[in-house]
Design goal:
about 70 residues; 2 domains; extended
């Protein structure tokens, strides 16, 4: 998918999971610059795979997050 392409579907278009993920990734990457987010980390779980799963939250909302093993510098 080109980052400059318009979305070539309508309400009747059937997308694969991969296509949906590709469009969502491009939309997010083009819509948001590199940014920092302030919040409380909770429910941190470290798995044998090396990945960390956690919630980032504030008083009004929460986001489920993952930190992949190759990005962790401990």
């Amino acid at each position: 998918m080109s980052h400059h392409a318009t979305v070539p579907f309508n309400v009747h278009t059937l997308l694969s999971v991969s296509e949906l993920n590709s469009y969502a990734r491009a939309l997010l990457e083009l819509s948001f610059p590199l940014l920092w987010i302030r919040g409380e980390v909770s429910n941190l779980k470290q798995y044998p795979s090396g990945h960390w799963y956690f919630l980032l939250k504030d008083n009004d909302a929460q986001v489920r997050c993952v930190m992949f093993r190759h990005k962790i510098n401990v």
